[in-house]
Specification:
- With 176 residues, the protein is an alpha/beta fold.
- The chain has a single domain, classed as Glutaredoxin.
- The protein has six helices and nine strands, in the order αβββααβαβαββββα.
- The strands form three sheets. A five-stranded mixed sheet has the order 5-4-3-8-9. Strands 1-2 form a two-stranded antiparallel sheet. Strands 6-7 form a two-stranded antiparallel ribbon.
- Strand 8 and strand 9 form a beta hairpin.
- It is globular and about 45 Å long.
- It starts with a helix and ends with a helix.
């Protein structure tokens, strides 16, 4: 039954006026986080001091757009590694769901479990549909080595997003 109502919930979620607070502005400090990944390891923003971070939020494991986006990042992982960029996916799925998703698609980066939606709210990506049910909107943040938000993608096309992020990172790194 859950799988049959998921598309309806996602559509309602996208149309819901009950969005979280605004996203932090570019040039502002990135909100701190401490979340577990698919292996149960903890990650916090401070772990990545001095390094570029791609923090991408997505609605739900195993959905078509989220799978496309994750697999595109996977396919480009060597480019991110070459640039010494940390790649972190965040959704409100739990650690177990992330573990299955990462294994199914051989994802070589961390998926962080924001199961209570706290970090999604801090980044302004939370969409609630009532009754305590919510999802993270598909958005991405580039966080500079200084911990400041360098770029925000409020709208993401999963088919081309990874290539777009790589191009923008190269431009940002070249600019200094």
């Amino acid at each position: 039954m859950y799988k049959s109502i998921l598309p309806t919930l996602l559509c309602l979620c996208l149309l819901s006026p009950a969005a979280a607070a605004e996203s932090p502005a570019e040039g502002q400090p990135a909100p701190a986080f401490k979340l577990q990944d698919q292996n149960g390891d903890w990650h916090q923003l401070d772990d990545y001091d001095g390094q570029w971070v791609v923090l991408y939020f997505y609605p739900k494991n195993f959905t078509p757009g989220c799978t496309t986006e994750a697999c595109s990042f996977r396919d480009d992982i060597f480019e991110f590694r070459k640039m010494n960029v940390a790649l972190l996916g965040v959704s409100m799925d739990d650690v177990e769901s992330h573990q299955k998703f990462a294994k199914e698609y051989s994802l070589p980066f961390s998926l962080l479990a924001d199961d209570d939606g706290e970090i999604s709210r801090l980044y302004g990506t939370y969409l609630g549909i009532g009754g305590g049910v919510g999802f993270a909107k598909r958005q991405t943040f580039l966080i500079g080595p200084d911990g400041l938000l360098a770029k925000h993608y409020p709208k993401v096309d999963p088919d081309v997003h990874s290539a777009q992020v790589i191009a923008d990172l190269k431009d940002l790194m070249a600019a200094g």
